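re: that chain from earlier
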Amino acid sequence: MDERLALAEIAVVVGANVQPGQVVQVTAVVDQLDLARAVADAAYRRGARFVDVQFRDPVLQRSLVLHGPAEAYVPAWRDAPVYGIDDVQGARIMIVGPTVRRHVGGGYADRGGRGGRGGRGGLCSRLGRGRLKW
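^ sequence. v structure.
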């Protein structure tokens, strides 16, 4: 089995434990298109009702961090889909890859005093309460 397909199966079956009829959200960087497609395919084979794939581009994020206003770094609407997925008892699969830290350096987290992406406490608390499968 292709390594990409094996990783997709592990993410869907073991990591997120996708169940028939479940909504799945996949987040990946643009360089991981093939793996994101494989994850979506594995989720549909497992019986997912809908798979929403969102892509992030660390190069574009770098431009925002370096040149954009600090208050625009984490717009409130950006993570709105994350906070709705638990309402439908969905699963979230994040494919980790290159980050803005690699493209900018470690100092970006101090911008605006928010320590990076900020706002993740709500997501982490949802994970802790078992309302969202990661």
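Strands lie at 23-29, 50-56, 91-94.
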